[in-house]
Amino acid sequence: GQVVYSIAEETERGASVGNIAKDLGIDAATLSARKCRMITSSSKQYFYINASTGALSVNEPIDREQLCELKSACLLSYELVLENPLELYRMEFKVLDINDNSPSFSLSDYHINVPEFLSPGTRFTLPNAQDPDEGTNSVQNYTLSPDEHFHLEMQTRGDGSKYPELVLKKALDREQQATHRLLLTAKDGGDPPKSGDVPVIVTVLDTNDNAPEFEHSVYRANILENSPSGTLVVQVHATDLDEGPNGEVRYSFSNTSSADLQRMFLIHPHTGEVTVNGILAVQRPLLEMLIEARDNGAFGMSSTAKLLVEITDVNNHGPEITITSLSSPVPEDAVPGTVIALLSIMDKDPGENGKVTCQIPDNLPFQLKPSLENYYSLVTSGLLDRELISGYNITITVTDLGSPPITTQKTLWVQISDVNDNPPVFSADTFDVFVEENNPLGAFLYQVSASDPDIGENGRVSYTLRNSTVAGSALASLLSVSLANGSIYAKRAFDFEQLRSFYFQVEAKDNGSPALSAAITVNVYISDQNDNAPAILYPISQNGSVAVEVVPRLADEDYLVTKVVADDEDNAQNAWLSYHLAHSSDSTLFHLAPHSGELRTTRSLRSTDFLKHKVVVVVRDHGDPPLSSTVTVGILLADTLPQALPDFDDSGERPPLLNATNIYLIVSLACVSCIFAAFLLFLAVVRL
């Protein structure tokens, strides 16, 4: 939007100009919250806006002549910036001229030398009055005090400008009056009008009756604004019909020409060449000067010509980049088209040299869009992801259309702020944890860890156990997890023989809003410890008595006496059992298979063997350290099962010595011995 106000210069401070909220259709109550502010390139802030009501008032009186110099239209441009959302309005203030300046002359008095022999009708140049006011408030007419020898006439130059001339209406007589004192008055068209005057002193001379005459009343020239010192602008030429010194012409700038312009240019007094002197530090494209040609007569005569110098612009100003508004950091979920910054781009050169192109690198998710005149908006053109890129250095390149072009760059740092758009992530879907049984209470089992690429609270992860049951018990009674670091601890000891494995889930949740979460399954495998000794299943001793096995009296070799059967509740090598004879009443009679536990006879039994035997069997597992159990087996050698089992506390019992069988054997052995002895005796006798 755009609004134009008109205000008279010198309006007092605090005077009302208008209400910007009503004029632009903006709710005045939102101005303060939207950080309403006025931006201008002027060094002074001439206007003030009330952020509560939108009332616009004068902050400092304006001097139009000082602000706009000789411009016909005096305009002040302001931009009204509102944020949330970002809006830009253009305001123009047209400063109206008032008649606050009186016409003035550059000289305190003006001298004219007039030869006495000049005839009536001769004309003399008079000084122009300056009035910085505009239009009808500037100089409108001149008057001359009454005099019988002179009167005033207005003349028009080739460019249409008017100037006063003093016209001789009656011949002069120096001997009667050598000096004439006149008063030239300039009046403007204001209401009421203002005026200024300058004394004109006419000295009547006795010689030199021809003034120099220029070839042209107006000289025009074009030069480049960067022309070096000494560059020829134009050469003026005037002729004087007089002879000798009265016809010799010298050139100079008229005293009515601006002192600044007289310092910028030099004029050769003899050749009339006008050259550049120094730097052309002007903003106006057209410069106006008066050149005076005066002869060298005793009472020199002069005439003037106007010199109009048009300054051709060269591209000597680079574009200027001003950051009017910048929103940083930008949330990473900002939608494409979000306004990030407002840029003002100015080039002081006029025409094509002041036109610019503006661009940023193509590989960025941003673009520049033209806004109001000389303004660009920097907006997002794609999706942002802080986890990939946390900030952008955006280089704005502005190039004007001059030849050669001038380029200006400015870099903006736009930071991307985090939003909670990433859930925690575990490194794997499941974790396997191995723990030995009989662990101490509070034992550390494992530490799960999840990463969250977000930052701050959005990236701070906390851990909890998801509710579940294990073997009929609540998970919380078995385990606990550290909220901060995910360390898992046992709240009670595990028993491999009761629970060999179970699983549960750990949930990782960030502290964003809304919070995001992820879960992982943890498999717990309980490893066995050798905490159970082998249990003897067979043979069984009751009430501390010895288990008895009955073996036939004459059992053969490798006869199976009994088989020791044992079991171990532990697992793997802790449950691998081996069988050993710890004690035997006759070590030559029995042997034990170490793996099967079978107790067998080593040889055939004899009638001379003890009837009772006692062996102690040790059953040992392969744990570290190993555990063992023992069983005592009593072995009774009998062909039939006795009615009462004997006591196996003694070491053994031999069979009776004089039974029938034993007597028969003794007699047989004695007979054989006698026969053998008789035979030996017979052989000895025969030999002798």
TrEMBL record:
It is a single-pass type I membrane protein. Residues 1-105, 106-214, 215-321, 322-426, 427-536, 561-648 form the Cadherin domain. GO terms for molecular function: calcium ion binding. GO terms for cellular component: plasma membrane. GO terms for biological process: homophilic cell adhesion via plasma membrane adhesion molecules. The chain crosses the membrane at residues 663-686. This is PCDC1 protein. It comes from Pygoscelis papua. The lineage of its organism: Eukaryota, Metazoa, Chordata, Craniata, Vertebrata. The gene is Pcdhac1.
